[in-house]
Amino acid sequence: MNMAGICLCMYAILVPGLLSNFALYKTILETTAYSIAYCTLFATGEYLASFKLSWRSALIKSYWYKCSTQTTKLVPLVLLANQEHDYLNVKGLIPGNNVFMVNMIKTAYSAFNFMRMKAAA
Questions:
Q1: How much is the pLDDT for 88?
Q2: Which residues span the domain enclosing 95?
Q3: Measured between alpha carbons, how far is 56 from 50 in angstroms, rounded to an integer?
Q4: Which superkingdom (predicted)?
Q5: Domains in the chain: how many in total?
């Protein structure tokens, strides 16, 4: 389900008289299930990014410079690898974070309002 799917589901749910009661309840249930799945996916991406940040801060606050020579050489490499946020993504195109989810819902709502205005005119 993407922006077009969200937009069409909103149009089907919020425009009165478009669907029968059974189809309306089915659409509401499916949309809710997909929304929960996407929210879970994006929350997992945010959790992964925050874990990487906490891992880096824990490593910085530890006394790694008092360890063995091999550990002293490896810790900067780990810090370098943890320099960026690591969000879940789809082939590097769609980041799985909360900002993308909010933008996707805003775009779908704008398209829904456009469709509703066109239908009213």
A1: 63
A2: 23-120
A3: 10
A4: Eukaryota
A5: 1
Consecutive H or E run containing 94: strand 94-96
Extract the residue ranges of the chain whose pLDDT is less than 50: none
Q: Tens digit of pLDDT for each residue in 28-58?
A: 888 888 888 877 877 777 777 777 777 777 7
Rg (CA), the chain: 22
3-state SS of 50-68 is HHHHHHHHHHHHCCHHHCC
Reading the block at residue 18, the tokens are 């478009």
> Does any domain span residue 35?
yes
In a domain, 50, yes or no: yes
Between the CA of residue 25 and those of 19, 45, 53, what are the distances in Å? 9, 30, 42
